[in-house]
Amino acid sequence: MSEMKVYLKGLTCANCAGKIEDVLSKLAETEEVSINLMRQEMTLKLKNGVSPEKMQETIKKTVHTFEPDVEVAFRQEKPLAATCGDGCCCCHAQGDNDACGCGHDHEHGDEAVFGRKFFLRFGLGLVLFFSAVFLREGVAGAPLFLAAYLVFGYDVLLRAVKNIVRGQVFDENFLMSLSTIGALAIGEMAEAVFVMLFYQVGEAFQDYAVARSRKSITALLDIRPDFARLAAEGETKEVPPETVQIGDCILVKAGERIPLDGIIEEGHAMLDTAALTGESLPRNAEAGDRVLSGCINMDGTLRIRVEKPFGESTVMKILEMVENAAGKKSKTERFITRFARIYTPVVVLLAVLVAILPPALGFGMFSLWFGRALVFLVVSCPCALVLSVPLSYFAGIGAASKQGILIKGGGDMDTLCHLEKVVFDKTGTLTKGKFSVTEVEGDVLRLAAIGEAMSNHPIAKAIVESYEGELPAVEQYQELGGYGICYELEEETVLLGNSRLMERENIPYAKAEGIGTVIYVAKGGRFLGHILVADTLKENIAESLGALRQQGVKEMVMLTGDRKETAEAVAKELKLDGVYSELLPENKVEWMEKLKGNGEGKTAFVGDGINDAPVLAGADLGVAMGGIGSDAAIEAADVVLMDDDIGKLAVGIKIAKNTRKIVNQNIAFALGFKILVLILSVPGIATMWMAVFADVGVCVLAILNAMRKKD
User: Both ends of the chain: CA-CA distance in Å?
Assistant: First the structure.
């Protein structure tokens, strides 16, 4: 199955986008079709054996059937460049408007909506309209009204005629043309002109609001580096980031964005990580630290050895996740799309019945009921719903991204709203994922460090790092599988290991109590003491869990492969509601299924390791720790916390709930006002001016509401 990308410059009508999706998805050649209106982009999944090139003409014909003025451009591969405010793939080459090959004119800004052409047109129209109002009793009144009407509505009339020729009758252009021409025919000339004027102004503000939202997301995604400074053979040169290989060294100077993930070999600097994590404070980075692409080097020069190719770098993963998020629709979005396809023909049918039945039954003149029927036609377009709902989710996803929370779709945002249970992995999630010495009993640290210096185990490294002196060479070093190690020092045998080692060698010892791994130390057959090594809890983890409870999470459980004593101690300290320890990855999946239950509330799993991928995928909502998390975990998750701060999950829930509230407000407001106008139009209370406000005015207000701050 192949994937095909189509760029649709100028597509702003959500109703038309839904019709295009519907027609193309029913083709025998397609598996799935999805239009991302905010990016003016369509994704088609084609069945095996279907050639994308052969589909191009069908796609163009379908799009132009509903939207003849939309520019259609094809590109099968995933664009490497960031996206422009018009939703197309923009090049970074200066002065080249079509270097990306999409055929779009890369002219941005508010001029695209409120430019000179807009003001000249509306200035002329208003002069004609007000002249007609003052001269309406004279001979010039009707021609001036008609001229003003044509100035405001010529493009709407033209599109309506073109669509009728193509067989598309009941679209917004036709309905608006029919209603205003009907108003002219029954002598309501001023109303007809003003309806078209209000409609055009509303459409302009609607396009402006959509462009604003699209532009804000584009600014968020402006983290793609333009170049990498490759250091090789004693010189540096600027090259495209995608040409840099794993193991190459790059230089990043002050003020530049880090282009690829890697490890600092030389230098130190403060890094601005706001674009990735949402943190306002910079982080210190020095030799040996791992750095992520997309961060900005605030001072100093860094020499970085590249660990991942550009296509797998953090910055590209973020771009891909955010770009694809709007294409993954929630149940509400899918319902509204289906509802819109039913709503318009039903209202048009009601308009016909209102125009015909009452006069046929003797309840008044046809002209009276025809005027009332025109109100039905004006409010028959569901744009306020089908545009504001996905825009609300899109804005919510953008708000979360600014906080370092990547939500992969509207459906995942809905799940966040209903979280009642959160299941945690322990290591790297609740704890730092890095061992350190937490307790030393007796003069044993030097002896332990001497022996552990020969091992690469994380616990051994923690012991060696905690000792600051010199370490002499040892003799007869031996690893004792399942017990520990032994070596010779100063003609005496030194033993380092667990309690089983002490018992095997018949050495009396004092059993240690505490959270972590205990290393008992003996020399010459005498017990000297112990060292406790533990993976410590993350800072502010208790506050983060408290914030989750404040957002409505009722139960918190931990699943871990760690030993029972350590797991229970951590759970007790954090006041978790349950803990299951000494689990293998498959055991975690089994427990996840048991914990999910069948209630209304949803269950999330939060993890970071590669062994967490199966349980992340099996949860209602998988949450991965993005900063240190494995690629497999991030790929399987629905939400990624870029700075590994569990407290951000509570922020994400808050944003999701606010987004959902705005979605519900828009649905209630748009449907409620339209229904109210429909009801009031039957007895003649609602005028055509009210109808236009119920259509375009409500749409603009719903869109502005969708763009409100969510966090």
Answer: 39
245 vs 249: CA distance, rounded Å? 9
Q: Judge contact between 621 and 601, C-beta under 8 A.
A: no
The rounded distance, in Å, linking the Cα atoms of 677 and 195 is: 15
Domain 410-430+538-637 sits in CATH at 3.40.50.1000
Active-site residue list: 425
C-alpha–C-alpha distance, residues 108 and 351, integer Å? 40
Report the CATH architecture of 228-314.
Answer: Distorted Sandwich (2.70)
CATH number of 433-537: 3.40.1110.10
Q: pTM, whole model, 2 decimals?
A: 0.70
* CATH number attached to the domain at 2-107: 3.30.70.100
DSSP alpha helix (H) spans, 646-685: 647-681
pLDDT, one tens digit per residue, over 318-342 is 666 666 655 566 677 777 767 767 7
Order across the sheet with 71-75: list the strands. Answer: 30-36, 41-46, 2-9, 71-75
Reported confidence tier of residue 375, pLDDT bands at 50, 70, 90: confident
CA distance 238 to 454: 42
Task: Give 335 or 494, the one with higher predicted confidence.
Answer: 494
Q: How many CB atoms lie within 10 A of CB 230?
A: 22
Q: What is the CA radius of gyration of the chain?
A: 33
Orientation angle between helical segments 383-402 and 698-706, nearest 10 degrees? 10
The three-class DSSP label of residue 651 is helix
pLDDT tens column, 48-96:
888 888 888 889 888 888 787 788 888 644 433 333 433 333 333 333 3
Highest mean pLDDT range out of 73-77, 376-380, 666-670? 666-670
The 10 Å Cβ neighbour count of residue 591 is: 18
Given this model, what pLDDT does residue 38 score? 65
Q: Alpha helix locations (H) across 224-330? A: 274-277, 314-325
Output 40 or 662, whichever has higher pLDDT.
Answer: 662
- Which long-range CB contacts under 8 A does 678-682 form with residues at least 24 apart? 678/347, 678/350, 678/375, 678/376, 678/379, 681/354, 681/372, 681/375, 681/376, 682/354, 682/372
- Crossing angle of the two packed helices 647-681 and 410-417, in degrees rounded to 10: 100
Q: Around 688, how many Cα atoms within 13 Å sit in the side-chain half-sphere?
A: 31
Q: Kindly report, residue by residue over 241-268, the tens digit of the pLDDT.
A: 888 999 999 999 988 888 888 999 998 8
261: tokens are: 């993930």
DSSP 215-236: HHHHHHTTT--S-EEEEETTEE
